[in-house]
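## Example record

The block below lists the input lines for one assembly entry, exactly as stored, with component labels intact.
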Amino acid sequence: MTAFILRRLLQTVVVIALLSFFCYYLMTLMPGDPVDEMIAANPDITSADAERLRQLHGLDQPAHVRYWNWASMVLSGDLGYSRTYRVPVSEILGRSLFNTFVLAGAALLFSLLIAIPLGVWAALKKNSRADYLINLFAFAGISVPSFWIAIVLILLFSVYLPLFPAGGTSGIAFGMTPWESFTDRVHHLVLPVLSLSFLSIGTYVRYTRAAMIEAMEHDYIRTARAKGLSWNRILIMHGFRNALIPLITITALSFSTLFSGAIITETVFAYEGVGRLVFQSIQSNDFNVAMVAFMISVSMVLLMNLAADLLYGVADPRITYS
Amino acid sequence: MMGRRATRNLAVLAGVTALIGVAYALIRPSGVVAPPDNTQIVIGITQEFENLNPLASSMSATAYLYRMVNRTLVALDEHTVWQPQLATRMPTMENGLARFVDADGQRKIEADWEIRDTATWGDGMPVTCRDFAFAREVALSGSVSVASIEVYRQVEEIRIDPFDPKRCTFVYTEPKWNFNRMFQFYALPEHLERPLFEEFGHQPQGYEQQSLYTRDPTNPGLFHGPYRIVDMRLGSHVVFERNPTFYGDPANIERIIILLIPNTGTLEANLRSGSIDMVSMLGMTFDQALAFADRVESEGLPFDVNFQPGLVYEHVDLNLDNPLLADVNVRRALVHAIDRGGLSNALFQGRQPAAVHNVAPVDPWFTDDPDKIVIYPHSRRLANRLLDEAGWTLRADNFRYNADGERLRLRLMTTAGNQIREVVQVYLQDQWLGIGVDVRIQNEPARVFFGQTMRRREFSGASMYAWISTPEASPRSTLHSTEVPTEENSWSGQNSPGWVNKRVDALIEELEVEFDPGRRLELIHAILYDYTHDVPVIPLYYRSEVSVTPANLTGYKLPGHQVGATNHVERWNLLPPSGSDARDTPAAAGVTP
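Predicted structure tokens for the full assembly:
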């Protein structure tokens, strides 16, 4: 198993290195550069100013030289400087990553807590009214665009029923106690989490239901019942455990998105997350921010895939890594 | 196990509850929120901002914020009149504070500046000429990404009075008439920033990365304006509090919070829910503001929707290298065919006035005098006659063809996804179709359109977009023949039509060094005459700035130029509601013309 993990980690490093170059190169192919953004905001910038700024930012260098400079800087532990915000990348990215992790983590947890019991229930009650109702809810969640549900939530629970703030990451107040800060964050999280969960609950319900239906139709379930095992034990130890493989895959992949952000939800709710930050960075050619965020996102996908592979063995002892 | 009946009951209960909730939410009037008072106001903006180091910043939103915390020697006021700010007086030849000098065989200008006695940084240190000299030194060091360096480069030397550092003489390298309009010549607190510049200034962008504006943005010593920053989170918000050491009248409002709401679609919901009290000029789009203004009137909402035509000039560039458009009669016919007044009324309720050329009405140089410029009234008859004269004949299919049987076809481009431009584009297509011109629309994302197509003049026909200028600015970058983007000049310059007019070149050269205001006006009007005569560009309309303010806010005015509404933020005043809650009073609602 150690050899398996080491081999996969080595592959991961190679893939990250290759992807970093391709991502960087693709970004350099985009029309325009940061100086164009400056010209748009300031009519007094002259042609000479534009030329000087391009030299200062190294934009007059070929793409591979710029990539090499960036990679050397990152490998030396310096994530660089954001041209958009004029602060070190670590300062702005760290906070956004944490915020996104909290939002996406809460949404994932909430979705799983709702979706798994609903999916199991729908599977056990296959073709019943409860099943149809849950399926209706699941398909609605999958079909409704996230920006629409976000705006509806704001209208319902911020404008008409002023229960939650319409946006923001936290309230702006001074002298809050730690408890007040915590409750304030939770208060601001409710609507974005609900919005983000609406889609994923539907997806998880469908996966759980399908996996459970398949698992419960196996012979070993009938055998377990014949042996006189309790229903709960059959359901959890034999049915649900065998239904876990597809769930682990989808959950692991969802976990990898915890750091890549939810652009639409973050934008609509003015939530200070990494999705919005990366979008803004790409729009304004802020390579340093966008590249570091890309690398974190790519690394998470690869690492979570590895974690899923390892968890298969835990869920199903027949899977070995020798 | 839940029975079938129980499941059904649960479903019915859930459905009924949801319906009641939605129905209640829809019929219930929106929440009544207390009007803001001088304790605090929350302003929504949709554009990102960066740290407030004035030398390194380049975003419009940052410029908006900067005027709350710092001021410049002079600035344009809300009536587009130059006023001294940090300076006690604006030096001019007439008041004797400025003079021509001859040195090393060159003519230069010397101007005496004096900084207000009471101007201090937030930590009590006086604002002096040393702070300006230091800012100039930093700007010219070559290691800082100053966007527009010319304003610093034009000052050759700052001679500081050894006995009074608040008095100094600026020596200007060239005798330009606008030497004293230094609204982008910023001061840096030398006592705080010099050590950092000494240590990191030799590295590219080293100083700006280590500056206190980056590392310690709430340091009171960085600010001398009516407010100072007490909390700043990039990508989220900035909190300003009244600066007790401000040299002018103390601000009326104690605290101002700027909240970044990147999605324009939720601005109104945030206003109605009370999350924000006001939307800055960097907020709603024009069409959103129009729709909201209607709702303010119909629902009696306690807001003012402000419209102010500004310096942004929407126009259509014509590529003069295109043989079809090289004929001035075709270009004139295209202008005659457009009912620009009708466009303004139909799409903008007349709040974005029709344009006649590139100088906006808010600019003192503006003229619409038909004796000075060529006016093109809407006339299909004139347009058709010009096209006939140009050899384009109307055929039975209602399109025009030349003698070779080639159809009069034009490609019209703009930024994809910009709703207003796309509507205007269809309007133009329809109007030009009326004179037999086959217009094909081809739009591109903004970054492709500006970053590639316009920058390299890769548009074949017509391109619709906007220019922004400053009042009384030289039109060199957009009209001078040396500013046509070419491979030789690395695609710099903004003369995208490729208009080459030697008379205009000479007029621009003369305009930039002419000290007589009356003669300058003659020169700019001569330029505008050629501009409207040759029609390298089709003027469409002057864009308006929009903002939404609480109905009880007084002392606020949208200026329509770059020195934004925050330049007089200390005069903003939130009146207490008289009698009943101002937000419930329909009379409190209104739309500022």
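Residues 24-31, 580-593 of chain B have pLDDT under 50 and may be disordered. The radius of gyration of chain B is 28 Å.
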